[in-house]
Each structure stands twice: as structure tokens, then as C-alpha cells.
Design brief:
- The protein has 128 residues and is of the alpha+beta class.
- It has one helix at residues 5-34, and strands spanning 36-43, 49-59, 62-69, 72-75, 77-82, 85-92, 95-104, 107-114, 117-125.
- The protein is built from 1 helix and 9 strands, in the order H-E-E-E-E-E-E-E-E-E.
- It has a 9-stranded antiparallel beta sheet.
- The protein folds into 2 domains: 1-34; 35-125, Lipocalin (Beta Barrel), CATH 2.40.128.
Length: 128
């Protein structure tokens, strides 16, 4: 069975559209999973637990983050999500600490860094 050049061009065009659309759709579904309220805990080098809430929203097609911390609400400074890695800076006792998280089996897990120290950070999504 022989196909016309027009049919082949159409088939190639459709294949290219699908190939370009799949990563966009996957990114959108990742965004949906990340959006919401996350109950987080950072562990200090002394073993103390520092709880905070991370709120991830979508604004103008981009994910943004804000925090509820012991002193009130704050911006998650320099909030980015790149290739599944969430990065931002969070204020704590007058300093900003870098936090890097990944979604693993429905939980955000990662590390915080700053002021010459580092520790684990993790959290679960709150009820909608």
C-alpha cells in the first residue's frame, strides 16, 4: 500500500505535535500534584523539629510559594520548580535558608542549607 506525500506529511506533523505536547501535559500534571498546602518539618542538627506550612499555587501559569511560619506568613523567596526539583529560600530567626525538595511517593523530601548548617526537610500534603 502506497501513501501519498501529503498523507505522510500530515502523519509526520501529527507525530511532531504529539511529541511536543506530551512533556507539556506531564509538566501540567506535576503542577497539579504540587499545588496545595504542605505540612512541612525541618530537622535541626540538634534534632529539633521546626514546623512550617508551604503553600504552592499557580499564578499566571507559573507555580509560586508562600510560607506560614512561627512568626506569621512569608514569601518563599526565589521559588522555582525545575525538572521536578522545588527550590526556595525561607526565613528563620533573621536569616534566609535554602530549601531543596522533590516529590517522592506523595511526599516532599529534601534538605535545607544555611548559616553553616544543613538538615533534612520533609512534608505531606494537607487535606484540601
Amino acid at each position: 500500500m502506497k501513501h501519498s506525500p501529503r498523507y505522510l506529511r500530515l502523519a509526520l506533523l501529527l507525530a511532531a505535535i504529539v511529541a511536543l505536547a506530551v512533556p507539556c501535559l506531564l509538566a501540567q500534571s506535576d503542577n497539579e500534584v504540587l499545588k496545595g498546602t504542605w505540612n512541612m518539618v525541618s530537622l535541626t542538627p540538634d534534632g529539633d523539629k521546626v514546623p512550617f506550612t508551604l503553600i504552592i499555587k499557580e499564578q499566571d501559569g507559573k507555580l509560586t510559594g508562600s510560607l506560614k511560619i512561627e512568626t506569621g506568613e512569608a514569601e518563599a523567596k526565589d521559588f522555582t520548580v525545575t525538572e521536578g526539583v522545588i527550590k526556595f529560600q525561607a526565613p528563620y530567626q533573621g536569616e534566609y535558608y535554602d530549601i531543596e525538595l522533590k516529590l517522592v511517593e506523595g511526599k516532599l523530601t529534601g534538605k535545607w542549607y544555611g548559616n553553616g548548617a544543613e538538615g533534612d526537610c520533609s512534608g505531606t500534603k494537607g487535606e484540601a
